[in-house]
Structures are given as C-alpha cells and as structure tokens.
C-alpha cells in the first residue's frame, strides 16, 4: 500500500465516523464517497465546490443535477425547478439578504413524515449539501437528502395559496393532499 492509499482510507474512515447516515446504515466505500463530492470532480464537471452542486435548466422547467454516487445504479439528487429558483431569488431581492432555502424531513404529519422549509444563511459544511440554480441556493442535510433524493423542489402557485413543494419523490409511497406529509417505501 502506498501513502496516498493509506491517506484515502483514513479520510474515508473519518467521514464514516462523522456521518450520522453512515452510523445508521453502516459505512461502505460507496456511501463514504457520496459524502465527498470533491473526489469525483473529474466525473462531475458541474460540481464547483466541496458541498455545492450547480444545476442547469431542463426543458420542462426542472433542473438536471450531478450524480453523487459512482455505483452502477447512480443515485439522483434533489432537482430544483426554475420556478423555485426564481421565487428564492425574489425573496432574497425583497428582503435584501442572501438566504438559502433549507429543506428538511421530520417525523410527523398525517402520513408519518413531513417536509419542512425555512430560509437560512447558516449551513454545516460536513452534513449539508447545497444545490444551486441560477444563483438560488437550496440546502439539505444528509439525513433529509436520503428521503428526498430523486425528487424535485418546485414552487407552485394555486388559488388557495402558493408554496414550495417537494414533488415526484421516488421514496414516497403516498402523500397527503396538502403535499407536506408522506409515507416512505420500505
């Protein structure tokens, strides 16, 4: 074993110890690599910093995102729609701040889990992942990202009100009519 292999193993080991998700699921190389997007920069030209993923607009107003897992069946990440990005930017312009929309998943609601969304300027460099589209940033912690991976964050305007919504969640078995709570497929 050479020095870089030993150094890489120590880094993966320290990431596994710090990651709550790793403790819950057990720590394997694919999971550890998913927490270190910088190691994948050659494969992911859209990643421009350690914890930020920049996306480009898709024809149907959703954004495509870089994949974080190097496995044969890549795990998708959170997609941000153009309408969600525009609304985040409008909120920041009106308030004069540079806030991010934090998406978290908590236990509760009528289906067992619920989405919670808040504006924040703070983030944890170890546990949070930032998704950016056209200057609008969305931050998701590691545990919540496991629940929303493959979903789309959208901003929906309806007669009864407007809101940010997580849509097309592949991990949700069913959801409430208000689209805030959901069941998880096991």
Automatic annotation (TrEMBL):
One of its GO terms (cellular component) is mitochondrial [4Fe-4S] assembly complex. It comes from the Eukaryota. One of its GO terms (biological process) is iron-sulfur cluster assembly. Keywords: Iron, Metal-binding, Mitochondrion. It is found in: Mitochondrion. Its main location: mitochondrion. The keyword DNA repair does not apply. GO terms for molecular function: 2 iron, 2 sulfur cluster binding; 4 iron, 4 sulfur cluster binding; iron ion binding. The keyword Mitochondrion applies. Residues 83-179 form the Core domain. PANTHER family: IRON-SULFUR CLUSTER ASSEMBLY 2 HOMOLOG, MITOCHONDRIAL. Belongs to the HesB/IscA family. This is Core domain-containing protein. It comes from Powellomyces hirtus. The lineage of its organism: Eukaryota, Fungi, Fungi incertae sedis, Chytridiomycota, Chytridiomycota incertae sedis.
